[in-house]
Design goal:
With about 130 residues, the protein is of the alpha/beta class. It has one domain: Rossmann fold (3-Layer(aba) Sandwich). Helices cover about 50% and strands about 15% of the residues. It has seven helices and five strands; from the N terminus they run βααβααβααβαβ. Helix 7 links the parallel strand 4 and strand 5.
């Protein structure tokens, strides 16, 4: 499966694996899955780090290198992804989550998330 990880899962996989659920850990370790991260997640980390959020204190450059080194592929935000956001229902306002949902759907991936609000979007979302 092609799996796009949400930002919190990326942070936990890289720096706090004890926070991963058993199902998340199984997905990440399953070699038949292709793992992806979004440039939007790196952007989110930079923005929230600058704002002083305690849960976003990671060095985004180091995180990106670690993800690439460990076989994750990066997916960049395109205008097609931006346009796909317009077709999403307004279930919540987080622009970073909305980009990830749109990317996953546009690219035929599953967005793997721990966010209960994101799971309300249904199609293409895999809660862990």
């Amino acid at each position: 499966m092609k799996l796009l990880l949400d930002t919190h899962l990326l942070l936990w996989a890289a720096g706090a694996p004890e926070k991963l659920s058993d199902s998340a850990r199984s997905l990440l370790l399953d070699e038949t899955n292709s793992l992806f991260f979004s440039s939007a997640s790196i952007w989110e980390i930079v923005v929230k780090r600058v704002l002083g959020r305690e849960d976003f204190r990671v060095d985004p450059s180091r995180l990106r290198r670690l993800l690439v080194t460990n076989g994750y592929a990066e997916i960049f935000v395109t205008s097609d992804h931006a346009l796909a956001i317009d077709r999403l229902p307004s279930l919540h306002k987080d622009p970073f989550d909305r980009v990830l949902i749109a990317q996953a759907r546009a690219e035929g991936m599953l967005l793997v998330t721990v966010d209960a609000l994101v799971t309300k979007y249904g199609e293409g979302i895999m809660p862990v």
